[in-house]
Amino acid sequence: MTTEIVVAPIVTSPEHPKKNRIQVSNTKKPLFFYVNLAKRYIQQHDEVELSALGMAITTVVTVAEILKNNGLAVEKKVVTSTIGMKDETRGRLIQKARIEIVLGKTEKYASMATPPSAQAREKEALTNKEEKKE
């Protein structure tokens, strides 16, 4: 029995990173840091690419599901692969699981993600004030 290992080429280099890619770590930042960052990227670029290796894959999937369940994003593409990395301690090549999830902006994103305008807040405040007088 043979096992095929697919090594996905990395398309971007550190000098020219993708503007809408978030590389997720499960140790550096809390979950909702990535949720809020992904919201901002979707708003600016109409889509976001979430990428992770190994144990951080669960964080990427959770972020994607939160955005989808809140109606802010729709899944466009999911790619899984393994990549070869050099183990710093043992000095040998090890295989790591990798996932990339591309999410796009939903049609109702604009109405859901943006806070009410100052004008709408003023109107609401006046309405509340008038209701208290009655």
UniProtKB/TrEMBL annotation:
Compositional bias (Basic and acidic residues): 120-134
Family matches, as Gene3D superfamilies: Alba-like domain
InterPro entries (alphabetical): Alba-like_dom_sf (IPR036882), DNA/RNA-bd_Alba-like (IPR002775), UCP030333_Alba (IPR014560)
DNA/RNA-binding protein Alba-like domain ranges (all copies): 20-82
Region described as Disordered: 111-134
Source superkingdom: Eukaryota
Molecular functions (GO terms): RNA binding
One cellular component (GO) term of this entry: nucleus
Protein name per Swiss-Prot or TrEMBL: DNA/RNA-binding protein Alba-like domain-containing protein
